[in-house]
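Chapter review. Work through the record for GPC5 protein before attempting the end-of-chapter questions.
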Amino acid sequence: DLQICQHRAPTCCTKKMEESYQAAVRRERTQSIQALNFELRYMIDGHITAFREAFESLLRFAENRTSSLFETAYRPMAKEAAEPVKELFTDISLYILGAETTVESAVLRFFDSLFPLVYSRLINPGITDLSQDYTECLRLTRQDINPFGHYSKNLVTELSKSLWASRMLSQALRLGSEVINTTEHAALSKECSRALVKMQYCPHCQGLTLIRPCVGYCLNVMRGCLASVSELDGQWREFISTLEYLTNEVASSQELETALSGIWSSVNEAILHAQLNGPQLSATVDKVCGQPKQQEGNLSSASIVPVKEVTETQTFVMAHTSLNNKRREFISYMKRSRTFYASIAERLCDGDLVMRDSSTCWNGEDVV
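Structure tokens for GPC5 protein:
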């Protein structure tokens, strides 16, 4: 009553053993593909982690630099500015990691939050009644009167351009990881598991436990079993080319690092611009939002403090170098995996599974 290992000679197999063999080949095939995938998965998942760590290091550096700007040059508003600064860099991080947000919305939200502070602490430091309604009016007015000049839009342009490739690379890495997960758990068809049993275990039914499949026979069976996985070859090659393009885009210049480390400078220029145009801004705001309560006495607006560049270049250079080294190492490995799905049958038939350097092997019917 054997269904797979039918043979003219006497056999030591039963139908139940054939079923056990089918379960065994399914388990073994999954383990074999997992073993092949391990290095590739390790490289992709490792780079996802390394990319995030290096990027977060750059972000922390840029955030600390921006925070120190307020603490050294704009002390009256430093404490209140801490939250908008933190939100800005959180939004940038989420954008890079693929969240449904934009650089423009993050930057403009930051400047919306910044204007009430700049207006009440630097331009008109005598304001005592900064109510919720008055603050909200200032936020909304910012969009119309553009107190920060072209600096806010310039920052949007610079960050959008430099962060785009990093966002795409982050999403591509996640996609690569998902592809590997999917192929590992691809189900074997009934015909495939029967063919694998015939190739690997039917010789055992004849007592031939040391005879292994012929190379050509193994390749035919594996190619049939993995036809759906092999079809990924064209898309995988295209995926590797896209990864290479994105990695080069991110690494070809220091745009990402320069844009992040220059945020503090753009914010400083924007605040200086608002201070220089203080009287005009006050006149417009008074018309739109009304006149808030002022302290007694003649309080002049905060003096404009020129800011020298903060020097923390060592941390920045280390993070930049680390990121570039990881990019080069990663893309070099990924280029070698270009034929991964095209050669998967050959790789599974390599090693101990088949008989090499011997004239005797199993061809599916007999020892030849």
